[in-house]
Write a structure and sequence with these properties.
Number of strands: 0
Shape: globular
Distance between the termini: 49 Å
Radius of gyration: 19 Å
Number of helices: 11
Order of helices and strands: HHHHHHHHHHH
Length: 268
Amino acid sequence: MDPSFPGLGTVINVVTVVVGALLGMAVGHRFPDRTRSVVTDCLGLTTLLMAGLSAVSVTDRALSDATGAGAPVLIVLGSLLIGSIAGSLLRIGDRLESLAGIIEAWFARRSPALADADDADPSDGATRGTTAREKFIEGWLGASLLFCVGPLTILGPLSDGLGRGIDQLLLKSVLDGFAALAFASTFGVGVLLSAVSVAVVQGALTVVGVLLGSVLPEPHILALTATGGLMLAGIGLRLLRIKDVPVADMLPALIVAPLLTQLVITLR
């Protein structure tokens, strides 16, 4: 196999997420509740740290030079508002929860060992189903956002597709592998499914890199990264049990951010 084929970096990234998630699922249930709670708190704090590192992109000079000194924060705000309104009207959160329930039930039927049956009283079927579904969507959405939002998610696959190397994705793979282990020890099989999200998002960006080159200019990437950083902050708040932020309904903001950036640049 040619070690330089486009997409190698994403393949490695997916493998590390799968391995990390499987290890987390294997050892996670052996931890007492107190230990698993501490792990979740550590993930929440680390997610807030990564959120801050991403959100600070709003202060980057390349973005302010392209859009104007006062525009970057307004772009991020507008992206979140427009994206959240669209997402809530489309009921993305509810639809994702329903989809998660279907997938979780599919896994439970075919591999009962992967089901999160220990999180509720088996005699209360409704409580168990709701808890497992919420845990699944939390792990899937949280891990997918953590792995698929940020500068490395965009720049890494594009650099890979352009033939500039996979160094950025190798670094991301190591980080994602450890994060998947920690997430899966608490949230289970939903984290394993986040590998699909990584494959789809980064695979698509690699194809874009191969076919079109650098499809997004730097200001657009910075605006998307800053917007995604605030969404990661919402995930961190959820993990810390501070505020149940409806992050799923905010997902369209990731599409709005580069479009709104282009609009501001055009009108300027």
